[in-house]
Design goal:
The protein is built from 15 helices and 26 strands. It is α+β, with helices and mostly antiparallel strands. The strands form 6 sheets. The protein has an 11-stranded mixed sheet, with helices on both faces. The longest helix is centred in the C-terminal third of the chain and has 29 residues.
């Protein structure tokens, strides 16, 4: 096979998902309604010094001999979150065995445990996509450069981040090829061949693929040279249908964030400055991370007719007239895994919402004497089989190379929501001890839970639901306590300087929006769907404003 030569010339992530904004007031004048909820080698040139990822402890089952205790502790060191958030984040990724550095700077290898979280995201969304009439398919990774050039704002927005193939089979290519950064162009090329009549519409597809964007400052999961995502693309006969589709998908992402990831995102519309290159409107879900930075966790774009006009994607309507189709595109990526880490994790490691946790329950048998071993292991195996039969994702850690205490710490660091402990006394009493990951120490531990099948299953399922709800409640409280309502530019600057989000009326120009970014480092994250009633005055100009916007620093 001939070698491929890449010429490497940033592309804001298309990936990103509506948090209900609590009741609040602006300048004691505006009462806002509550909308009810449904339901690496990574870049060393980053301005943030990223700590080298230490080698994590081996899998419990693979250990052939126990290490000295001091070495075991060293393996599991996690920098305190309050001390260095970035180092904490990288320590968790390493020690929880989520990902490792790839041989090319800015790339990562997603390890099985990290990929299992991504699979849980896929499993949920795939069902929802198909329920709403979308079909999965696949488009090529290599795209002719001329396709990118057809839509002017698209090429302007993306060209700094493109990876280009210029040599194939040992020869200079007649036309350079773009390694897929997103697929609007190639999708339109094919839609033009498939769509002829109004009877061919709507056309609604999705693909699960990798994309490449040549980022100069990278962070595992959050911003990497290559990442995984789903990207949906639809074509419609009317602008109303396209708008309905774009809003339907951002609502789907919102529900996923709340109900599965326990992340209270705020949904809304992007400003013109922040709109996806080539889109008429961009809708987003914005999540507050543990360091109070915003993460664009999912996006949905109403593309209007921008791409269909550039590519000549037309259909004959019911009156026999030729019309350009109206389109959408929407995506969530592996960036969401980073969002889960940074929203819920603590100094002990990961804290996974049960609905997405690869392992929901870890069973740890405990014995000291040889004659206790078989009875404890038999009881532990029975508990595992009982829970597994009930559809609970459970693992039995019956390895004998590590102490129970080491196992407790290890699986807490991996973010497993519940731990079941079984010792000789528990076997005698026919009960188990259950500990919650989200409530540390004795406070989160309950003794004497019966091993009887129906009782145990009901208790465990109930506790998993409690953990899921508690994580969402805690994240929502954190979010709400770090959003400041502002009425002036000085108040906005003060809020951003304190590391908080600023929310206030806005009707100023693109130039003034860019001024805010230059002077504070914050951008408009969105104009939330939940908006206040009554008159509003722009915090920057003093002119009337129809909407409030949220400003924050972001990833």
């Amino acid at each position: 096979m001939g070698a491929l030569s890449l010429r490497l010339p940033s592309f804001t992530s298309l990936s990103s998902a509506a948090a209900a904004v609590p009741r609040y007031q602006f300048c004691r004048r505006l009462l806002l309604p509550l909308r009810p909820l449904s339901a690496a080698n990574f870049s060393v040139q980053s301005s943030i010094v990223e700590k080298e990822v230490a080698t994590p402890p081996p899998e419990v089952e693979r250990s052939s001999s126990p290490k000295p205790k001091i070495q075991q502790e060293k393996d599991r060191v996690i920098t305190p979150r309050s001390q260095d958030f970035n180092a904490w984040y990288l320590d968790i990724i390493a020690n929880a065995e989520l990902a490792d550095y790839g041989p090319v700077r800015g790339t990562m290898v997603i390890r099985p445990y990290g990929y299992a979280i991504w699979e849980a995201i896929q499993d949920y969304l795939n069902v929802k996509f198909k329920e709403t009439g979308h079909s999965n398919m696949y488009f090529p990774q290599l795209i002719p450069y001329s396709f990118i050039e057809k839509e002017a704002s698209h090429v302007e927005g993306f060209s700094p981040e493109l990876a280009l193939v210029t040599i194939g089979g040992g020869k200079e290519l007649e036309e350079k090829l773009v390694v897929r950064p997103t697929s609007e162009t190639i999708v339109n090329h094919m839609f033009t061949q498939w769509i002829h009549s109004y009877r061919d519409l709507p056309l609604m597809i999705n693909q699960w693929v990798n994309v490449t964007r040549w980022e100069m400052r990278t962070k595992p999961f959050v911003r990497t040279l290559e990442f995984l995502w789903q990207e949906g693309h639809t074509a419609h006969a009317t602008p109303e249908e396209a708008e309905k589709e774009a809003l339907q998908m951002i609502d789907m992402y919102t529900k996923f964030s709340f109900e599965q990831a326990a992340i209270p995102v705020i949904p809304g519309r992007k400003s013109k400055v922040e709109t996806f290159a080539g889109a008429a409107k961009t809708y987003t879900i914005e999540a507050m991370m543990g360091d109070r930075k915003a993460l664009q966790a999912g996006t949905s774009h109403n593309l209007g007719q921008n791409f269909s006009r550039a590519f000549g994607t037309q259909f004959t309507d019911e009156n026999g007239q030729r019309q350009h189709v109206w389109q959408t595109s929407w995506a969530i990526s592996t960036r969401f895994v980073g969002g889960i880490i940074m929203t819920h994790g603590d100094d002990a490691g990961l804290m996974l919402p049960p609905n997405l946790a690869p392992i929901q329950v870890i069973v740890v048998p405990i014995w000291k004497k040889a004659d206790e071993r078989s009875g404890v292991l038999d009881a532990a195996a029975t508990v595992k089989e009982t829970l597994q039969a009930a559809g609970i994702r459970v693992k039995l850690d019956d390895s004998e190379q590590r102490t129970p205490g080491w196992k407790f710490n290890f699986w807490e660091m991996k973010g497993v929501p519940l731990r079941i402990e079984i010792g000789p006394r528990d076997v005698s009493s026919g009960s188990v001890v259950v500990s919650r990951r989200d409530i540390p120490g004795k406070q989160g531990k309950v003794f004497g839970i019966s091993m009887e099948s129906s009782t145990l299953v009901a208790y465990v399922k109930g506790k998993l639901e409690e953990v899921q709800s508690a994580l969402l409640e805690k994240a929502t409280s954190f979010r709400d306590s770090n959003i400041v309502d502002v009425c002036s530019y000085d108040e906005l600057k003060e809020a951003i300087a304190q590391g908080k989000w600023a929310r206030g009326p806005w009707s100023a120009s693109d130039k003034e929006e860019l001024k805010v970014k230059e002077e504070t480092g914050a951008t408009i994250r969105c104009f939330p769907f939940d908006q206040p009633q009554g008159t509003k005055t722009c915090l920057m100009t003093g002119n009337p404003a129809d909407e409030v916007a949220i400003f924050a620093k972001s990833y």
